[in-house]
């Protein structure tokens, strides 16, 4: 049973508002670290955190109130100039906001959060007393207290409370109270044994802790202006419906005069325009600024950079760009991987950068913009870039591709190797990377959103990863084609162009049909064969398609044209390669194809290298 029975609506409102406030606080804390004297920014942070504490107090979430109150005291001392802002102090503050975020997750499950970790409270008290002592050199977290040993964060901030005799005491708030001023004096005499040592970098799980996500929201905030637009359009559609009803009655009574038919045509045209406007207006109610997602990443980049000992600045642009809410939620995991990869793999350490004539601080840029009917998201770094030849060797070494296939890849295709499952350039597995699953997850998730991902990299200059996504998944632009006297729809995002199929141009490569298009050898795949249907005629057209990093030609009998469709799932069945169904203008059912699923298990002909080509006039494709 929920600990907050009867308060579910209030709790939902609190979590919705406070989660956004906390993300904004984290973002501004990262900015404050760059501008420690910005009082206006600190006041904004203070107000946001105070609002969270007030809501927690109203709902009687005492554990959250406790940690918020102590953190507010730190903000107050910073605002009054009683404490200097250091990286070690910021670590403790961000640890506190991370715990509050974890409490949000607990509250979303209807449970009361546990009391804050004693070590964190001790660290906050030590910071308030001005006892955070930065270490002389980076020190690894003690192996004796691994984070995985407990469900609570391994704050590991209060290393030890030391008496004058040097004997370690228990790391509890009481012990900290005992060793206040007198022990600090003892530390001055023997600086090799600090009373309270701040952790040199965030705890190993800090980036993940800070990014802990609550369950997907089932509500959405909509601008009232957009709702008014929907209401107005609904009213106009109602008026047009009344006009059509009147005209229908007149026609049924035998009034077929030219004026009546012209009025009918005008009313239908008006209805078509209004329905289109209503559809767009309703779609806009689902659109949310992508900045709600982007604001989580400055904290992520900051914590990871501290953990790795790097200087990284994350610059975000295009936060106002709007995208379908459901897509924003599904984009979180891919973008987390890409931001982490840019900080971990992409940029160098300060020492490495200085040695090659670069600024010690690296730059990672995250941007979004609308281009036509698509959203383009780019993650760019000014790091060391990628070596295509090194990627080729690593893929062969890990057994992901054979040497013959690898030798036929150009530089662009070599960069795409990072998306292969199991591929990693790291020889040692760490808690950050090395397992070869991150980029595979990125590509898979982007494909589920009917998007495309592309990589450009230059050694010594940096890497840019571009993601292109449709504005919404509710309406899918498709190309309707025909095969075996049946219409099918393929996602337009995958279509590059349409070409006529000349039988004389078909050649065999290792026993498989191919066509050369602008010096590119592309495998030819017949839609009927992919569906395991018996072809009724020779395909007349080829749709040049891009699936992930592979290009191919889909042979079809003919094509109908472009359309925007609403996909409906098939009840109780899911044929291979079918994403759903829609209705055409004439009322017939059109199957919408899932090309990735349809192509799964289909072997492609290798491209490049020395291959024997022969004409395939008689080839049955």
TrEMBL record:
Residues 232-473 form the Histidine kinase domain. CDD domains: HATPase_CheA-like, HPT. Residues 3-107 form the HPt domain. Keywords: Kinase, Phosphoprotein, Transferase, Two-component regulatory system. InterPro entries: Bact_Chemotaxis_CheA, CheA-like_dim, CheA-like_homodim_sf, CheW-like_dom_sf, CheW-lke_dom, HATPase_C_sf, HATPase_dom, His_kinase_dom. Transmembrane segments: none annotated. Pfam families: CheW (PF01584), H-kinase_dim (PF02895), HATPase_c (PF02518), Hpt (PF01627). PROSITE patterns: CHEW, HIS_KIN, HPT. The modification Phosphohistidine is found at residue 50. Its EC number is 2.7.13.3. Residues 475-604 form the CheW-like domain. It catalyses: ATP + protein L-histidine = ADP + protein N-phospho-L-histidine. It is an enzyme of class 2 (transferase). This is histidine kinase.
């Amino acid at each position: 049973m929920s600990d907050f029975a009867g308060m579910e609506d209030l709790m939902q409102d609190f979590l919705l508002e406070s989660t956004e406030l906390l993300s904004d606080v984290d973002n501004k804390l990262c900015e404050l670290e760059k501008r420690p004297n910005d009082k206006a920014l600190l006041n904004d942070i203070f107000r946001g955190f105070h609002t969270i504490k007030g809501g927690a107090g109203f709902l009687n979430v005492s554990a959250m109130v406790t940690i918020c109150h102590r953190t507010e005291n730190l903000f107050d001392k910073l605002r009054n100039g009683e404490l200097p802002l250091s990286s070690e102090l910021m670590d403790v503050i961000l640890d506190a906001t991370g715990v509050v975020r974890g409490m949000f997750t607990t509250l979303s499950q209807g449970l009361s959060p546990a009391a804050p970790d004693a070590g964190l409270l001790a660290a906050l008290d030590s910071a308030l007393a001005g006892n955070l002592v930065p270490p002389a050199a980076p020190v690894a977290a003690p192996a004796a207290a691994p984070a995985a040993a407990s469900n609570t964060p391994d704050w590991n901030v209060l290393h030890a409370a030391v008496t004058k005799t040097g004997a370690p005491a228990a790391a509890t708030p009481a012990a900290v109270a005992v060793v206040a001023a007198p022990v600090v004096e003892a530390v001055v005499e023997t600086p090799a044994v600090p009373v309270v040592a701040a952790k040199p970098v965030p705890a190993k799980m800090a980036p993940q802790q800070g990014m802990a996500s609550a369950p997907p929201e089932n509500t959405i905030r909509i601008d009232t202006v957009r709702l008014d637009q929907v209401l107005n359009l609904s009213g106009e559609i109602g008026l047009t419906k009344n006009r059509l009803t009147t005209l229908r009655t007149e026609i049924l009574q035998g009034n077929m005069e030219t004026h009546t038919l012209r009025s009918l045509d005008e009313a239908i045209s008006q209805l078509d325009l209004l329905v289109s406007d209503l559809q767009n207006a309703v779609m806009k109610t689902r659109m949310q600024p992508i900045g709600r997602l982007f604001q989580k990443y400055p904290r992520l980049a900051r914590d990871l950079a501290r953990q790795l000992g790097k200087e990284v600045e994350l610059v975000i642009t295009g936060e106002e760009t709007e995208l379908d809410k459901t897509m924003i939620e599904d984009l979180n995991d891919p973008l987390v991987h890409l931001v982490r990869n840019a900080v971990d793999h992409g940029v160098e350490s300060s020492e490495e950068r200085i040695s090659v004539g670069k600024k010690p601080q690296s730059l990672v840029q995250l941007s979004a913009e609308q281009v036509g009917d698509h959203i383009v998201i780019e993650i760019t770094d000014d790091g060391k870039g990628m070596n295509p030849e090194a990627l080729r060797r690593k893929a062969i070494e890990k057994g992901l591709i054979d040497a013959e296939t690898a030798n036929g890849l150009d530089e662009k295709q070599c960069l795409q190797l990072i998306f292969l499952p199991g591929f990693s350039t790291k020889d040692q597995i760490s808690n950050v990377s090395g397992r070869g699953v991150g980029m595979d997850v990125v590509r898979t998730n982007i494909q589920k959103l009917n998007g495309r991902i592309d990589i450009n990299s230059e050694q010594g200059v940096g890497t840019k990863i571009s993601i292109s996504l449709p504005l919404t998944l509710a309406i899918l632009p498709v190309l309707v084609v025909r095969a075996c006297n049946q219409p099918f729809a393929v996602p337009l995002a995958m279509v590059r162009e349409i070409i006529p199929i000349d039988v004389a141009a078909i050649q065999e490569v290792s026993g498989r049909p191919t066509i050369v298009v602008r010096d590119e050898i592309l495998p030819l795949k017949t839609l009927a064969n992919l569906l395991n249907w018996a072809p009724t005629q020779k395909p007349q057209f080829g749709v040049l398609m891009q699936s992930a990093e592979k290009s191919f030609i889909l042979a079809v009998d003919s094509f109908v044209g472009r359309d925007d469709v609403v996909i409906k799932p098939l009840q109780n069945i899911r044929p291979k390669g079918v994403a759903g169904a829609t209705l055409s203008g004439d009322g017939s059912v059109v199957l919408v194809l899932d090309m990735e699923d349809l192509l799964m298990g289909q072997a492609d002909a290798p491209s490049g290298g020395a291959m024997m080509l022969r004409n395939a006039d008689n080839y049955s494709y």
